[in-house]
Input
Amino acid sequence: MSKNYKSWMQILVVFIVTTLIITGCQKKTEEEKSGKENPQQQNQPNTSDNPVEIHKNGQTAETQAEEIIPEIDIMSLAPLMPQPDDPRKILENVVKSYKNSKSYADQGYFEFVYIDENNQQQTTHQLCSFVFQKPNQVRMEMNMGKMVSDGKFLFAHAGLSKFYNQVVEKHAPKEMSIKELYGDMILSQMMQIDAPPEVIFLPPQIVLLFAQNPLLTLVPDDSNVQLRLPEYLLSDDRSQVFPCDRIDVTHKLTGKRTYWIERETNTLLRMEISVDHISSNQKIKPVSIKFELVNALLDPDPMQMATFEMQKPTLSAPVSELLPPEMFLLGRRPENLTCLDQDRKSTIINAIGQKEVSVVLLFVSDPQASQICRTAMEILQNVANHYANNKKVKIFPVSVDTQDVADNTIAETLQQWEITLPFFRQSNQALMKELNLTDVPTFLIFGQEGNLQLVNTEVLSAENITMIVDSALAGNEPQIQIRTLFNEQVVFFKEMMDNAVRYDTFYTESTVTEIAEPTLPQTFQLKELWKRTDYLLPNNPHVIGPYLFIPHDFQKISAVSSDGKDLKLEENQPATVIPKGISEEMPLHFLRSAKTSDAKWYLTATGINQKQLFILDGNMNTVASWPDALEMGKYEIAAVQMTDLNGDGIPEIVAGCRLPSDETGRIVAIDITGKKLWEVKSSEPDQVVIVFRDKTPFIWTIERGYESTDFAEFSAEGVNLRKWSPESREGLLWKLFADDLDSDGNSEVLAVLANPGQIFVAGVNTNNGTENSAQNPVFLWQNQISPGSPGVKSFDFVTSGNLLGDSTSKEWCVASADSTISFFDKSGKLLDKFVVGKLLSGMATARWNDDVPVLILSTNEDQVGGSPSENSVFAYQITVQEQNTESAEVPPQSSSEPESKNEAEQNSSEPTTSESVSFISNVPLKLGMFP
Output
């Protein structure tokens, strides 16, 4: 997963995401001893005490041969296993064999051995079975999930009791693919192998069968590939012995993986993963990891293949996408809220009209459930203590023990748990039955109107619960945020899978980008002007003249002056606002701005996957939003730009949006009153830039195909003018950015091209469009930058600015995934670069302090590259060095990950003095920003 998702969601998870995502699987553990292999010798095949071994379930060849197949003379097989050929050639032959096969079948498993918190060795075994018949017949059983396609219909089930009545049912695709196999987030989580995140998130046989180039994942670039001595594997039925070539693939980011390749058929029978690069937490220590596929067969006999039929669970309903059952309960008011207090008096949980928030814990005193119920009850006790003086918060520990359990038994149990709360009873379990709940403990939170704001069968922290309660007390509905967070995760999951398929690599993103050590620039000198550390998760700082606007804390926008000090709204209040009407479930990532012909400024604030964008005036007042409440669930915003489209002197907003209903994209134009002007289809709505030709605005996007990407151009009125494929390129189009660098009325466009292991930035011309493809824009120049995805999903990782002191010309400023920042001029010349070394979350340029160039960086708190990042905003003065100077300061280190759009054309006309800025012309300013 991306760094952004990890760091950002670490905060949001605190709010509720743990109630939505059904991760973690029931584990069967058993104690098991582990053995060590002999160390590998440099540039030589490994040797061992017994050069011919059969490895199976920890037994040696001699033991198994004597007990199972004594008729085989093990040592006589040694001549059949001469030194194999070049290891890369062997792996290439494996890929070819899988591509040429018409069918495949295995009965494998994933094994994870670890030391638990009690210093006991445990082993997790998870089913990892796959059967495939080209083009679209599949039977997949992995971990808890099952999927079957008979060629006409596809059925899938999550395997957990809480999903027993949901079965994914749809038409089978014409050709099976990774996106079809892993298209449903919850189902995919149920089919995920429960491995540490550093392990590839797809089983190796899926990569071999469906990736375009499996070696990109199995053998990453810059890997050290070596042979080991051949060895033998024993089949699961212990009737066959397979001679295997063993190949070690070692990479600095992913560690060592050993592939066991069956000689005769080029079939992968085992994959062992070194734990040296696996980060262990405080509770467990990894010992060994392997995929065991010893029964794998390419083009097996039809009799050896499983049937492509699925028995649906009884009473199951067909769905297009699995949803947590909690999603159907949120916002409801149950009917069965009556329980008995300890005096056997009837009590109503969350009585209507009382404007109270109720926290309910359903528990049992049964000894088998006592430990987890005790933990939950201790949390509830802490919550009760926190709200001891707040009469608007009611605490209900509700025993759902059956009637045969005496009140005294429950009281004694609570006393043993050191719980002082009075308990209630609902022995008929009517509330559980109404809500179709089967697990205890279960937390329920009712809002002031009596509607469910939380249904959680996991154990939340007291802090999580109090945050939800506080929000409900303020009159909000946290359940809306729960739904939004779930939808966000679905969108993010699909984007992650899309990116993995697009770039044909299937390691988790967190493993493929390593933050480099910080370095100094060579041409430029950076002097720190100021630093702010009081913002939570600052993102994408935005400059307007001598002022800096910073989105942070999810919904807040703060304004500071060029010296980094707070501006004032009224009296001593800092210039920090939450746009009027914004819901708490809408984190803000992006600010865009433009001014009217009479110098009034407007801002647009929104975020990736959010339901609305907000339009603010120069006093940071919300003047409009889009879409309205009736259409708010229709769109998910992916990109936003702001400019004057029709030449009337008033800016409009251009937003790229996804439609969750049918997974299509749209480009939408909105005026500053929030009125939609037009809407057109787009396959890649997160790539929207405004391109000027002869001062006339056009909208450029990317059209995504199966194996290619194209440019698409729309007029300011939304007319689809043309689409073209660049003839010269090193990789697929990934991102677009635009700005008029030389102020001549024609935009320069920067395209980011991506191939696995390689990322390029390329300048693109903006020729007048014609139907003649020869007249279409082409790449003018190209430079490689550090590969990988920036670590913060919302990061605008390309911007532009006057960096060389020439106010009439701008340069490109590009951040790479390893936290390298590169500066390019209009012609593509590399002016300078340096490594920041921390997790970058935003970047901007300005002309402050007597027109001196300034670089602004924001970082998010994270632990990357061995150097801790922090939530900070930095401003650096840029000067050009005559020669290398020893006084250059190293900026805050960063690790980044891409995601968004550029400010584009309006920056070229931004005012640079307070006198030239009349944010809202003749209206007195509350901000005190502009003297």
